[in-house]
Amino acid sequence: MDDITFVPALAYRDPKAALDWLAQAFDFEVTMAIDGPDGDSTQCHYEMGYEGRGRIMIGGEWNESTRSPASTGGVNTTNTHVEVTRDIDAHCEQARTAGAQIVMGPTDQFYGDRVYRCADLEGHHWTFAMHVRDVSRTEAEAAIGQPIHAKNWA
Question: Which residues of the chain carry a pLDDT beneath 50?
Fold first, then answer.
């Protein structure tokens, strides 16, 4: 994981409950756990990965500007995107069974991914995608009627 450049950090009212829920709903695994002194969730730090890839930091609401959507009336300013390598429809059903609010069910996209979107137990928004077919830039541009400027897309 040394080559990861961007690492999202999400705040939860109850970060330890979030760890358990994220593992159950999305198959994430804890890769680092630092509990706050005397169980203080404002001073904890956790990291999770998925299938041995990626990293996301999970913590508590540690200052006035770091809040869970559950503490802001559901307001989100980010969406975390996760690439999955197995059956995305089954992944979505697992998330639904765990209590995720499915915002958009699995749908094939013009760029070759199958995608679903959901909100977690505290309202963080997630997008899960699985590559299902290769699409040329020309084909994608034709599908949306717009030019695509991309450095590494043939």
Answer: 1
For the stretch 31-56, pLDDT in tens is 999 999 988 888 999 999 999 899 99
Q: Is 43 exposed, middle or buried (0-12, 13-18, 19+ CB in 10 A)?
A: middle
| pLDDT at 66 (0 to 100) | 85
Q: What is the spatial order of strands in the sheet that 9-12 belongs to?
A: 9-12, 53-60, 45-50, 29-34
Q: What is the CATH number of domain 9-72+79-144?
A: 3.10.180.10
CA of 116: how far to CAs of 9, 55, 86, 87, 128, in Å?
Answer: 21, 20, 13, 12, 5
Q: pTM for this structure? A: 0.91
Residue 3 pLDDT: 67
| Cα–Cα nearest to 123, from 81, 75, 82, 83 | 75
